[in-house]
C-alpha cells in the first residue's frame, strides 16, 4: 500500500489542528508553526506534500516556497492564504506551487485538492515500491551492513539516476557484477525498459558484432532470411549489460565506441544508419589498463565505458555480510528444494566467516545450495557445507614446526594458492593499499605488484 506524508506549515494553531485531524486518517501528517521549522524538517526528511500558509511570521510563504523548491524540487506544495489577490496566486504557481486554496478552507475541497495533487506522484511511488521489492528479492549482493557494501549501494543509488551515462563495474569473479548492473537498471529511470545481457567471453569473436548490432538478410552464410535485431536494439529504452567486456575484439570495440559516441550503428551487411537509445553498463575482472598497454583494448573505448566506475568489494573484504548473505540463500534454496532448515550451527557460522572466499558470492551460493540438498536439519553444520576439513581460521594449511619456522608437510602444499592467500590477506589488512600490503609481506612495492599481477594472469 502506498503511503504519503504531508507537512502543514501555518501559524494558526486552531487551523493546524483542524487540518491535521482531517488528513491524518489517510496520510502521515506533521505540523509546524513557522516557515523556518518546516524548512528544517524538509531538509532532514522531505515529505510528499506541504500545505504552506502565505502569511507566516518569520518569512512570507512565497519566500518559503522558493526555499523548499531549492532544497527538493520534487516536493509538492499547496499554498493556503486569506488573500483574494489573484497576483499572489499567479506568483506562487510560477514558483512551482501545485495548487492554491483560500481561507476559510472547505475540508471536502481540501481532500479533493490533496488527492489530485498526490496523484502526480502515485506512479513514481508505485515504481519505487516495485524497485525496492525487486532489489530485496533478487540482489543478494546487496544484503548486509558492512561499510564496503553500504558505500557501493549509496554510489549505485546516485549513478543509477543518470539515464544514459555508461558505467563500468570492476571486481573479482563471483562478486555479483551482473547483479550490480541489474540494480543500476532497476533503480534507474529506465526501470520499465528491458535489461539485456551479453557475455562477451561466451560468444565467438567473429559473431559478437552481429550479436550486438544484428544483421541484414543474406549478410553471411547461415544468416536468417529475415535478418536479425541485435542486442542493442533489443535493449532500446533500457539497459545493455556487456559482461566480460575485455573479451571484445578490437573490431567490435571500434563499432561499440562509435555507438557510444554518436548513438549510431549499422547492422552487419547493412547500409542504413540506425539510431537507438539505450544505456550501456559493462563489467570485467581483467586489468584493462594492462590490456591497453598491450594494445588489446582501446583506450578511447575505456574512457567512454568508464565514465563512472563501480568497484565491487570481494566477499573477503566484507566478512560481516557473509552470514546474512548465506541466510538469504538459505531461504531461497529451502523454498526451492522443499526443505525446512532453520539456520546454521554456531561452528558452521564461524567457518563461513573465516573461509577464504576465492569464488566470492557465487562460491557461497553454491556451498549453501549443497548444504540444503545434503543436510537433514534443523540446522546446517560444517559437514553439510563441505567445510569440515577446513581450518576454523579460514587460512592455509599450518606449516609451523617446533622451531617456529615453516616446515613442509609430507603431503606437500600448493605454493601458488599459499602465495595468493597471503597477498589477499595483506591487502585486506592494509585496506586495499598496495604499499602497506607490500610492507606486511616484507617485500618491495614493485615485487608485490609483480606477484599480484602474475596471479591475476594465471587466473585468467
Describe the secondary structure blueprint for this structure:
Layout: E1 5-9, H1 13-23, E2 28-32, H2 35-44, E3 49-53, H3 61-71, E4 76-81, H4 86-94, E5 99-102, H5 107-138, H6 147-160, E6 167-170, H7 177-186, E7 195-199, H8 205-213, E8 214-215, E9 228-229, H9 231-234, E10 239-243, H10 250-262, E11 264-265, E12 274-275, E13 279-284, H11 288-293, H12 299-305, E14 308-311, H13 322-337, E15 343-344, H14 346-354, H15 360-374, E16 379-380, H16 382-385, H17 415-429, H18 434-440, H19 445-459
Parallel strand pairs: 1-2, 1-3, 3-4, 4-5, 6-13, 6-14, 7-10, 10-13, 15-16
Antiparallel strand pairs: 8-9, 11-12
Q: In brief, what are we looking at here?
A:
The protein has helices at 13-23, 35-44, 61-71, 86-94, 107-138, 147-160, 177-186, 205-213, 231-234, 250-262, 288-293, 299-305, 322-337, 346-354, 360-374, 382-385, 415-429, 434-440, 445-459, and strands at 5-9, 28-32, 49-53, 76-81, 99-102, 167-170, 195-199, 214-215, 228-229, 239-243, 264-265, 274-275, 279-284, 308-311, 343-344, 379-380.
Number of domains: 4
User: Under the CATH scheme, which architecture of the largest domain would be assigned?
Assistant: 3-Layer(aba) Sandwich
Unreliable stretches covering 5 or more consecutive residues = 390-405
CATH fold title of the largest domain: Rossmann fold
> Radius of gyration, rounded?
29 Å
Please give the CATH class of the largest domain: Alpha Beta
Quickly count the helices. 19
On the 0 to 100 scale, the average pLDDT is: 84
Class by alpha and beta content: alpha/beta
CATH evolutionary superfamily of the largest domain = P-loop containing nucleotide triphosphate hydrolases
The number of strands is: 16
* Strand neighbour order, sheet with most strands: 2-1-3-4-5
Give the fraction of residues assigned to helices: 40-55%
Amino acid at each position: 500500500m502506498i503511503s504519503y506524508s504531508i507537512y502543514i506549515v501555518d501559524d494558526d494553531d486552531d487551523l493546524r489542528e483542524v487540518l491535521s485531524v482531517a488528513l491524518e486518517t489517510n496520510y502521515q501528517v506533521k505540523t509546524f508553526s513557522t516557515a523556518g521549522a518546516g524548512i528544517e524538517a524538509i531538509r532532514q526528511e522531505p515529505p510528499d506534500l506541504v500545505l504552506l500558509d502565505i502569511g507566516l511570521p518569520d518569512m512570507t510563504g512565497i519566500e518559503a516556497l522558493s526555499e523548499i523548491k531549492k532544497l527538493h524540487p520534487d516536493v509538492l506544495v499547496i499554498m493556503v492564504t486569506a488573500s483574494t489577490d489573484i497576483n499572489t496566486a499567479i506568483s506562487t504557481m510560477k514558483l512551482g506551487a501545485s495548487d492554491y486554496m483560500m481561507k476559510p478552507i472547505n475540508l471536502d475541497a481540501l481532500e479533493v485538492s490533496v488527492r489530485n495533487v498526490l496523484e502526480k506522484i502515485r506512479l513514481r511511488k508505485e515504481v519505487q515500491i516495485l524497485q525496492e521489492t525487486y532489489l530485496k528479492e533478487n540482489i543478494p549482493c546487496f544484503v548486509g551492513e558492512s561499510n564496503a557494501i553500504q558505500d557501493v549501494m549509496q554510489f549505485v543509488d546516485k549513478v543509477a539516476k543518470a539515464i544514459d551515462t555508461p558505467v563500468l563495474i570492476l571486481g573479482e569473479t563471483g562478486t555479483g557484477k551482473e547483479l550490480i548492473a541489474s540494480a543500476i537498471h532497476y533503480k534507474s529511470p529506465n526501470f520499465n525498459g528491458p535489461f539485456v545481457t551479453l557475455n562477451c567471453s561466451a560468444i565467438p569473436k567473429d559473431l559478437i558484432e552481429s550479436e550486438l548490432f544484428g544483421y541484414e538478410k543474406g549478410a553471411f552464410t547461415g544468416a536468417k532470411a529475415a535478418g536479425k535485431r541485435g542486442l542493442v536494439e533489443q535493449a532500446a529504452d533500457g539497459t545493455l549489460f556487456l559482461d566480460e567486456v575485455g573479451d571484445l575484439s578490437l573490431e567490435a570495440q571500434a563499432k561499440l565506441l562509435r555507438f557510444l559516441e554518436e548513438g549510431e550503428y549499422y547492422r552487419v551487411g547493412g547500409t542504413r544508419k540506425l539510431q537507438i537509445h539505450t544505456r550501456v553498463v559493462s563489467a570485467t575482472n581483467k586489468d584493462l589498463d594492462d590490456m591497453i598497454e598491450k594494445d588489446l583494448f582501446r583506450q578511447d573505448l575505456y574512457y567512454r565505458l568508464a565514465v563512472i566506475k563501480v568497484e565491487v568489494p570481494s566477499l573477503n573484504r566484507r566478512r560481516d555480510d557473509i552470514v546474512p548473505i548465506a541466510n538469504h540463500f538459505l531461504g531461497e534454496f529451502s523454498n526451492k528444494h522443499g526443505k525446512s532448515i532453520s539456520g546454521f550451527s554456531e561452528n558452521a557460522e564461524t567457518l563461513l566467516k573465516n573461509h577464504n572466499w576465492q569464488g566470492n558470492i557465487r562460491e557461497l551460493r553454491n556451498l549453501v545450495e549443497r548444504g540444503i540438498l545434503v543436510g537433514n536439519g534443523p540446522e546446517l553444520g560444517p559437514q553439510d557445507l563441505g567445510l569440515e576439513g577446513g581450518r576454523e581460521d579460514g587460512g592455509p594449511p599450518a606449516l609451523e614446526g617446533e622451531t617456529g619456522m615453516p616446515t613442509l608437510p609430507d603431503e606437500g602444499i600448493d605454493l601458488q594458492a599459499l602465495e595468493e592467500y597471503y597477498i589477499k590477506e595483506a591487502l585486506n589488512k592494509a585496506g586495499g593499499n598496495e604499499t602497506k600490503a607490500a610492507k606486511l609481506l616484507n617485500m618491495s612495492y614493485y615485487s608485490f605488484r609483480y606477484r599480484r599481477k602474475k596471479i591475476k594472469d594465471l587466473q585468467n
